[in-house]
Design goal:
single chain; 169 residues; alpha+beta; 4-stranded antiparallel beta sheet; 4-stranded mixed beta sheet; elongated
Length: 169
Amino acid sequence: MTPIKIKRFHRVPIMLTIIMSLGIPICLCFLIFGIIDASVGLIAIGIIPLALTIICFGLFLNYGIHISQKRVILMNQRTIKMFRYDDVVYINITFTNTCIEGKLKAKNQKPFEFCFDGVDLNTGALFRSHLSVSGLKLTDEFVERSITALSTCNKVHIKNLYEKRKTEK
């Protein structure tokens, strides 16, 4: 079985774009000036946020479902769950126009329910705005490609409630 990866089905939040475009150059400046001046404080001010930004952006890009011969990994906004492929009994996945939801049942465990409905960077009342929330960008082609890829795995059961968008000519 070839590995199945269902990811990059969400828009990038505007807040993340602003943080990436302003934060990375500023952190790099602190890092470079810290190295030039041999200042441990400036190096720390530059490297810690830069490392966190890179790690978080990497997690953001891998947000989704990964199925291989060894593992099933579900990575959403709240959790990262790993299951051994041999322990998985079934995976039910439902595609709708607003989300991708599912249920995974592993041996000797309760069913694990998951939902991919967008990304919310809201951490508190200070940042409550639409700038930090990102919805899904499900397209007809993405749903068809995902269903085709997922149907190659015999443990995956797919329910398609996604309604195709009407294109006007």
